[in-house]
Each structure stands twice: as C-alpha cells, then as structure tokens.
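anyone seen this seq b4? input:
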Amino acid sequence: MGEGQIHKRISTEQARTIFENYLSQEVSKDRACELLGVRKTRWFEMLSEYKKDSSAFRITHKGNSGNRKIPQETERAILKELEKEKKLIENKDMPIRHYNYSAVRDALAECHLSVSVPTIINRARGNGFFLKQRVRAIHDREVLTSMPGELLQHDSSIHLWSPYMQEKLYLITTIDDYSRLLLYADFVERENTWAHIHALQSVFLTYGCPMKYYADQHSIFRYVKDRDRFRPWNTYTKFTDDVDTQWRVVLKECGVEPIYALSPQAKGKIERPYRWLQDRVVRTAAKEGVSSVEGVREILRHLVETYNTRWVHSTTQEIPILRFERALQEQRSLFRPFVLKEGEMLDDRFCLRADRVVDAYRRVSLQGCEMRVPNGMPRDTVTLRMVPDAEKELVRVRFWKEDAFLGEVYERIEKLPLVRF
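predicted toks r here
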C-alpha cells in the first residue's frame, strides 16, 4: 500500500500520538516512519504540519479539499460553541488554555447536530477561534511499566473549576502507570497532608499496595534540604530525604517505595488525564451553571467513569479498565493485598504521627496540648497516631509503645494544629 493510502492505515489520533512520542524522544525517527508507513520525505512534511498546529493536523485523503457546506443552523451553532470556548480561555482563573474542538463536537452532538472535528477546525480558523501551539518541554525522565501496580502516579492541582464558583478547589488524583486507569480522583477545599493520606487509604483498600508511588517534590511528599529549612525538624546535619514526611511514612509502613519527578514534564502520563479532566469538568460546569462543590464533584465522578470505562487512551490504544482487568486475569500484577498487623486498626496505619517522651505525671505535650497517656510509664518514648474528624472537630489519638497499644484519647482539633497541615 502506497503512501497516498495512509488515511486507510492509520487514524489522525494515532498519527498525533506517534509525533508526540517522537518529540518527547520516546521513539526514534526511523521507528516513527515505520509506524506511519511513510518515507523520510513525507515524514518531514507531516512533522512540519504537526508542529505548526497539532490541533488542526489530520490524516485525510489528498482528494479532500475545501470546506464542506453545512446548514446555516449548524454553522451558527458551531460559532456559538466556539464563542463559549473563547470566554473560558480568556478567564485567567480557569484551567483552560486552548480550544477543545472535540468538546465542541460533543456539545453539538447533544443538540443532535453531527459535525466532524475537521469541519469545526476549519470554521474556527476562519473566524479567529484559534491559538498557536505552545512549545512543549521535553521530559527529563521516562517512566515505563509492564504491569499494573508497578508504579502509581500521584498529583494535585488547584483551579477555579466553574465560572460560577467563588473559591478554587484542589483536585487530587492517582493513576496506574501501566493501564492509565484513574484509581482516585476527588476535590478538596484545602490541600494538606491528611487529604493525601486519605487518598492513599482509598487506593490501597480498593486495589492493594503497589510497588512504587511517583509524585512531585512538594513538601507534603518530600523533605528537601535548604528549601524546607524553616520546617521544625530542619538541622544542619539533615539532608534531603533524611526526614520522612508523614505521607512518606505511610507509604513505607505499607511497603511502598516513593520516587520523585525531576520536573512537572516528567509526569506526562498523569498530566494528560489531568488536562482531559480539567477541560471536561470546566466546560461541563460552565454549561450547566454549577456553583457548588458537590456539583463539580458529581461531574468529576461521571467523567472519571467515562474516562476509565469508555474512552480509548491515545497512547495505549485501549480502554483503561479493559487493559487493567486483562492484566489481572493474566496474573500480571504487582499489587499486594493490604494487610494490618495483629492488634492494628486502619487508624494506626493511615494517620499522622509524632513521637514524645512521657513525663513524670504520665503525660505528653504536643504543640502546647497536654495529654494523659493511658498505661504510659515515665520516660517511655511513645508514638501518637492521630486521625482528624473534620465533621466532629475532633482528633482521635492512639498511643503506641513500639508494637504495644497503650490506649486512646480524643482532643479538639483547634488544640492540635499539627493535624491541619
């Protein structure tokens, strides 16, 4: 089959994925030519077209030229949706930085108007609804896995998720690197250590403990010397990773190795689902006039279900849940069952910790809050394992001496600011 028949061998989305992998140095030029089935001259022509405008790039038959005539009603509907896109992009508080022509197509489909993405792009370019492509940074680190549970990627971002909302929200997500299945996604009003520990608990109880967790270098995830010099545990003798953050301690107790991205671009596999979720959440919330946290959370739940069970991932060319479940059926998984030790509760594993020495009155002090230690003896070193309950405004504190449980007490949240960071 000749080069002129490329549109019969490969789709536009597949071609875009090949170019993207080439530009991020994941495949060589020769391998890319082989995948496309073209010679080098044609390759450079197509690459040039893609670099000029990746969103407008498409694989079509050479005989196709000119704009296809469509009804005036459809024409007006396209421009109306593009105008909505433009308003979202111009709102600097919204996480929208480009036109999503596929989202426009889906919006028109809901109105029973069938229009192709190339047709929408043609109208967009002819009416000024078009932005030049940004130059993408090359990944500093490549992450490749061959099984579910080999590596999970974890991240968060803060945005205004609806033009009708007053406050920004944090979106916390976890994705399986192999299948691209979103294992966790939820909004929180305030990002803190406890929110990320809660995400760990949800993933581990649902899927099991993975081999590695991949995150950025936020202070919640990693202690970095000099950057975190104002943290209470900083000394001149402690260097990067000499201190375990609360989040990192939970991972280690579950037998999971934390690793860190060298740059935001290094987490490309989780950034793509993020962009997909950001675009769809914002556009849906704007269309439906959503103004509450529960409203955008409901939109998020629906989109996560759609992403996991219906959409074919552009890189794997598979639906995430099918790729994930097939690997489990083939017994290719590195997820391990989550198991508690004898006498241990979930609150002893997924918690905030602090070590203190019991005084002569069998009490310990934490940030000015004194607590009596049940069954504690003077000069004993005990571990406080704390779980906050925001609704009741209480903190459950369980005391441990090595592997022995001593007892528990409850304190008001305002007396223990530690649990709010």
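The two ends are 62 Å apart (CA to CA). The longest strand covers residues 381-389. kinda curious what u guys think
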